Amino acid sequence: MSVVIRVKKEDAERLKALKKALGLKSISDVVSLMIKTAEEELDKFKGDINALIKSMKYLGEAGEKDSEMVDRLLYGEGLGDNN
After folding, report:
1. Which of 19, 20, 48, 76 could form a disulfide with 81 if both were Cys (CB 3.0 to 4.6 A apart)?
2. Phi-psi region of 80 (alpha: psi -120 to 50; beta: other; left: phi over 0)
3. What pTM did the predictor assign?
4. Secondary structure of the chain in the HEC alphabet?
5. What is the pLDDT of residues 2-38, one digit of tens each?
């Protein structure tokens, strides 16, 4: 059975690049590998998945080496604040 999945053009290009880099035959194989890997990693994760997802929204806002900014994004304005 096949299903059509709509993705952004940029994501389709990234999938094509992954297919080539991984030496896979199809984008379907890339998606299958991504699902398998995500499931394995999720099984290893013991924290609060909702907190992880919430914090991932801010990944692009933190600087590469700015740990203080990461702390503010994750914990609030002041370190230790639980906003």
Report:
1. 76
2. left
3. 0.54
4. CCCCCCCCHHHHHHHHHHHHHHCCCCHHHHHHHHHHHHHHHHHHCCCCHHHHHHHHCCHHHCCCCCHHHHHHHHHCCCCCCCC
5. 889 999 999 999 999 999 999 999 999 999 999 999 9
